[in-house]
User: Fold these one by one.
Assistant:
Number 1:
Amino acid sequence: MYFMKEVIRVFGVAVLSVGISGSARAWAEIVYENDFQTVEIGEESEGFLVLGGDFAVRAAGENRFLELPGAPLGNFGALFGSNTKEGSCVSVSVQSEARQRLAPAFGVGVNGLGGFRLMVSANKRRLELLRGDEVVASVNHRWQSQGWTRMVLEAAPASKALWRVRGKVWSADDTEPDTWMITYASDSAPPRGRPSIWGHPFSGRAIRFDDLVVAKVPARGSGAKIPFELGLQTWTVRNMSFDQAVAFAAKHQFKWLAMSRMHMDPRAPMDETRRKKAALEQNGLKAYTFGVARTSLAHEYNRQLFEFAKFMGIRLIVVEPDDFKTFESLERLVKEYDIKVAIHNHGIRTLYGNPLVVRNVIKHLDPRIGVCLDTGWVTAAGFDASKVFREYDGRVFDVHLKDKRIERTQGDDVYFDTHIGAGEGNLARFLETLKEAKFSGVLALETDHPEFARVPGPFVTKAIEFFQSSTRDKSLGRWGALATVPSLAIVLSD
């Protein structure tokens, strides 16, 4: 069985299209390939470090592969390739068969024994992701006996503080899935180590491995000149429940979540909060903010919000208090918990619709109290988003990226949400302003348009395309776009 790899040459370097998902292909440089065709039958392949089991090259017809025999029973593995601490993507073809009610387990790993492993546990009917020996994420999966199975595992830095790990499995007779089946976010890097393969022949049948490919995966944003990340504010998907929103985020490979009260309640029973936090972690998602959050003049009421944020690991709370005196309580809590607060703006007739008002509020407060800048409402209020951003002088912590078209009338102006970049917000220039300022927060895509909310996919896709085209480093030429695809985030807010 030969895996048909999509390999091309770019400036003399072999690259492989691995992990195809979303709106971009992750092109990466191949650093290792082995289809065992030149290895003598009965021998181990050169460069393999066998950790147990009688691995040897065998043949079926003209095809050669590395085989782990069906006996003895046990958990066996082998390391191959080179040590690395960088991001990498490993793919392999595996074949085995079930016997009566017994089925094998097999998988592929990165970064050595302490790294990550993607395992097909056929007896459990599960696809499991392990870090070391601990299962950190799993999904249902029904394995097809006897045929060849293709597996891909990718682990790479998604930001300075986060590694993203994801995997997929499919029958070699089928088309590769467009989306990853399992994802996980880790706040610590795996150790330096080699790729690996694993086999547990519980059915007493041999497990065969073929077409090993290892490719480098650059850190997200490496080569890019943008320090900020793109997100999605799920007021856009406001018809979704919490579980639907998590599924949506996992399916579309989003990373960061900013939770709103429509999806999580800071005052809900702790069992519910624990369940939802576990669901996020299982799907490789991490909450980075909550809001727009309800606040009160009652200090202990506000304390509950900060306790919730502390438990969830949230470092930023978005607020829009209906009384300026509330900031006396919020400032005390910001100092106590070291959790930032950002003031959100709506229309010009709301309390914080005029940026001058917001600047007057925050100038005497702790510097950890700043702004969540909604570009759509700033535009609708008649202000230039780029100018407003600069005038906040470093106090913008979060951005809701929205665009509006303004219909001017003799009475009140009428505002309509548009696709990102198609309105009057001059968002291409706004993104340039953020680049110049080295803004390092999240830009959360958002729309108030009910039709976009009903079918949000096209809105999100067009917004990502606009973002990529606006932030691409032109000096990198045709391949520059590959380096500037951002880490995506999803913001559950309103």
Number 2:
Amino acid sequence: MTLNTTRARVVFAVLLLAAYVSVTVGAARNQRPRTDEGYFASPALNLITSGSMGTPILENGPHMEGIRERTYWMPPLHMLAQAAWYKAVGFSLVSMRLLSLVWGLVLLAAVYVLVNTISRDETAALLAAGVVAVDYNFLLCAASGRMDVMSAALGFSGLAAYLALRERRFKLALVTGNALVCAAGLTHPVGGYLAFAGIAFLVLYYDWRRLRPGYLALAAVPYLAGGAAWGMYILEDPAAFMSQFGTNAKMDNRLSGLTSPLMGIYREITSRYFVAFGLGPHSEGNYGPIWAKSVVLLLYAAGVAGAVSNRAIRKDKGCRALMWLLAIYFLLLSVFDAQKAYYYLPHVVPFYAALLVIWLRWNAERRRLPMWVAAGIAVILVAVGVGGTAFRNRINSYQASYVPLIQFLQKNAQPEGSVILGPASLGFGLGFPPTFVDDVRLGYLSGRRPDYIVVSAEYQWVFNDYRKSQPEFYRFIQHRLTKEYEKLYDRAGWQVYRRKEY
């Protein structure tokens, strides 16, 4: 764990990046697309092909007014980044995911700078970035077309930039750090409010005596500029913005933690961490012994507990800053995100990694930690993260389940130009044609009667939820699939239905 020479650190970094890139590229190629990847790809692809940032695969409706003309349910920066990326490298599922891989590299660099600046320990910084690079959940996110890694990378870059510049060029630190934090929020709201709270804490923690009204005004400039830019787009159709963004904000009762913070914390642990680390009710599957991920969760918990309970570590101002940042991020996610999805973990995993490394190094330097224990921990982290992802890649759900479905549709969805309704993930295989639409209510609101309906496991999950929450939708869906359509295909969680002719 010393890595006390430049050559050793360079070799370690190269090996680490090679492992990260290889397994992430493998996951980008071998994992079947997710529905939300289709949602996020459609407006960017539409922008470079038609000049409109609408999402034409979704239906206009009372909850998503104007969605086919303009996309407002998420901030625009990830869509704009995608459009520029597709212009440069071309559009495909893999190229969409490689954009996240690149942002993952930015995140790792930001973690290194942040930890190195706080701890003045290059080895700790490199090891912390290494722990993040082999984290199973981070690797899955870095191989996904979602915007979470981009948002986390911009947020951590903002914190790192502020810390790296604050002593010599305080004004530049305020502007640069807050500009990157603003960009994180324009990529995803969760990354925005977490990073804003993080940089606000760092400014007060390190430099509250230096603050002046002029400095605060300077820090506000990036937010005013970013808000104005997004505001100009919003003003093109304010009613559509209120419909789309409001619907997304209310989805899954995201802010329910405000009324019950303790329940929010409980669910943060049981619904996010337990599930993401192989202990929850949704952790079954054919991906091997995924309960092994819980060992990494135990290591993170031990690192935090060990660092917090160690007086010498607590006395270090930089280490205390990391502890406070983790506490702030954890509490904000507990209260402001009832969805509890694993893909927000890249926003907090770097803090767990940093505290684990700092605690282990403190013990190793005082010979309280045998080298074989440190080596064993390293092997566990790599085996679970890199090995687990590689094992998942070998299953190759893209070739095993997705490709046969697309081939069936291309051969049997006749005549050409037939309307196909199904999850947005089909767009990558079908080419996002104008005759394809995603509508999980199967035409209940739109009145559309497509020629073919494709049902995925994700659709089935929503159908089951409708049984209790929206029984009228559920009854309509069941009648449509059993009485109005006939099943043609049923394989690997996919079903294809053709409309009956009367």
Number 3:
Amino acid sequence: MQLRVRKGAIGLALCTALSMSGNALAQNAVDLKPTPQQTAWQDLEFGVILHFGTNTFLDREWGDGTADPKVFNPTQFNPDQWMKAIRASGAKYVVMVAKHHDGFCLWPTKQTAYSVKASPWKDGKGDVVREVALAARANGLQFGVYLSPWDRHEPKYKDAAAYDTYYNAELTELVTRYGDLVEFWLDGAGSEGHVYNFLKIIETLRTYQPNTIVFADTALFEYGDARWAGDESGKIEYQNWNVIDRHGFLRWRPVEVDTPLRKLHWFWHPNDDASVKSVHDLVESYDNAVGHGGQWMLGVAPDNRGLLADADAKRLEELGTALRERYGHNLFANHLPTDENTARALDGDTGTFWSAPAGSHFSTLEVRTPKPVTFDHSSIMEWLVNGQQVQRYRIEAWQNGAWKTLVEGQAIGHKKIDRFPAATADRVRLNIVTSVREAAIREFGLYRTND
């Protein structure tokens, strides 16, 4: 990786401890269940990670820690403008890169002078993290942070013990000053022989933010609540099961997929608007991330004015419009009367769900419409509170007096979006071919996208 929840009645630290104790006895992945914080986070589906710092003013992706803090001077700094464009895209939360690998801190930390305190911006009295957090929440977005363990500026980095103390002091500031954090990014980037004290990092985080979801590479399996997809392509290109096996230990670790809005660029660069990804490419990434049961994390970068470039803001708004047009109207919204159980999968309420017959390992959910509808995508959401149950399924349409298979797949998980040649029918069903226990489906939808 380039970088490397809400309040609840029970802290995630306790939930994780209970989950791990239970997991040690589990013999099968289907016995594992998510914490309430994990399912709440998965429901957010789409977030944005923000890269902004001295690199922004020096046309760099990777800072080496030697940049003069005086280069940081966004004279039109306006995070509200960022958040309005981000919200228009459909994102539900943002993660601010509070310190990247160059060590420059975007808040007035007491641990180093290498921060916004030494910049001309607001005469050294500004706090980027605070203003971004306030703007995010004012626009209905949840807020999280990334604090790079690798620090190419701080002299203490050469002394592992001293740097661990330094890092945890910075972390304590971030987790105590800026309200509830929805997500904390954790990685071991650029360690150069430095073995980070991850146990202490998590201990510090959990002391003040017990409900924060920790995102981490699978190599940091035991410290994270969510895992990296494996690359920055913006796609999950495998059957996505929420439970993974690491060294013989099974854990519920949903996937987050990170990819930048601009091709290959996480930070803003001048004269680079041509690298902004097309709406088509972004929608395809969304379909292959959220539509494969994962979380989609889109990298967005303010420019050297402290604004989102016009091209970026416009593309985010276009993305939101495209997603609403694509998935905003479920063709099942106008369905023939059905039983109360089936209606729960068609009501647009993700807090309700259809239940297969008790004890069943296969079942069908059939929907009829008043007249034939034409569709080329389907969307299924599984109720995951009791774990991921569906192993194989098919979407089938009644055509010419028989059920025709349109698509078949394996894992459903949080959400599965399937694409297939356009079909027309007034009877469609979700055929649960195999489930470990009785299936539970939150929502079932059909869509016409004309792809």
